[in-house]
Amino acid sequence: MGSRKPARKKVVEQCAARVMETVPLVMRFIRADMRVRGSYEEISVPQFRSLAFLDKNPGASLSELADHLGVTRATASANTERLVQRNFVDRCDHPEERRRVVLKLTPAGKEHLEATRAQTRLYIGDLLTSLSDDDITQVEAGLSLLKQVFEQSADST
Hints:
The model has no long low-confidence stretch (mean pLDDT 88). Helices cover 72% and strands 8% of the residues. The protein has a single domain, classed as Winged helix-like DNA-binding domain superfamily/Winged helix DNA-binding domain (Arc Repressor Mutant, subunit A). The protein has 157 residues and is mainly alpha-helical.
């Protein structure tokens, strides 16, 4: 029994390394696809990430968006301004804190985000068609578990 724990620890560490190798690869692929296809009406990856963040966090502040994107408030503000100009985001003052800006997706922003996600899903789906049904089932199961682990971690922070 004692030798099983070090073996499990090694397998867990190898799995963690695989996650760290795979997730950036997938994200680079998605970003490259967004740039190459030009089918997102010239929306940048940071703008897409902003829309996705605001979809999950309506009423977020500019500071919260900047933290999510890993950029300065000035950069987030410029990024947001372009989204406001395209009528994808509403920016208004917080009712109780005059210096705080509240950000929300507009219906057009939500529609654009959904269209972008659908197009990316189609492209990824095309790539996955080369896998067997069993492989697809394994990928789905693994991703579901991974999502669950990270959601639980996010909920506890």
